[in-house]
Amino acid sequence: MKRNLRIIFINIFMIFLLAGEIAMQSVHASAESHEGVATVQMIDLDKGIARLAHAPIDSLNWSAMTMNFRVGEHVRLQGIKANDKVIFIFMQTSGEYVITAIRPAQ
Q1: If 0-12 CB within 10 Å is exposed, 13-18 middle and 19+ buried, where does residue 40 land?
Q2: How far is CA 73 from the centre of its chain?
Q3: What count of other Cβ atoms lies within 10 Å of the Cβ of residue 30?
Q4: Domain ranges of the chain
Q5: What gap in Å lies between CA 82 and CA 51, rounded to an integer?
Q6: So what CATH class is 33-104?
Q7: CA dist., res. 66 & res. 7, Å (int)
Q8: Prediction pTM value
Q9: Residue 77's closest CA among 90, 64, 86?
Q10: Which of 11, 18, 54, 63 is the S-S candidate for 38 at Cβ 3.0 to 4.6 Å?
Q11: Using 50, 70 and 90 to split pLDDT, how confident is the model at 54?
């Protein structure tokens, strides 16, 4: 009896584990990143926001515009300041556009 309960428990645990793994794969698959070229208008380190005047973003059918992007938690902004031209990578997360990488344009 105890052996049967243990087997049932292990099977239920494995089902939940696999369901969670499948759910996480679909979340990561839908999180598409995009690349752009922009001129930095402003960086607010306290709020974690960068205002960029970006060129068209073809992957999203966006025309050129100026907008605020949230700066990802692990993104390093050292040496980047207003009026610098940059190349940046971003993704949409929880309804916000989040910069995941940024570097000076050459």
Answers
A1: buried
A2: 10
A3: 9
A4: 1-30, 33-104
A5: 9
A6: mainly beta
A7: 58
A8: 0.70
A9: 86
A10: 54
A11: very high
Which token pair is 78? Answer: 């050292």
**Cα 16 from chain centre:** 26
Maximum C-alpha span of the chain? 72
Residue 96: which residues within 8 A CB-CB, separation 6 or more?
Answer: 70
Burial profile 56-85: b = 16 or more Cβ within 10 angstroms, e = fewer: ebeeeeeeeeeeebbbbeebeeeebeeeee
**Opening angle at CA 21, ends 17 and 25, nearest 5:** 170
> Which amino acid, 63?
S
Beta strands in 1-106 (DSSP E): 33-44, 49-54, 65-71, 85-93, 96-104
**pLDDT tens, position by position, 55-104:** 999 999 999 999 999 999 999 998 899 999 999 999 998 889 999 999 99
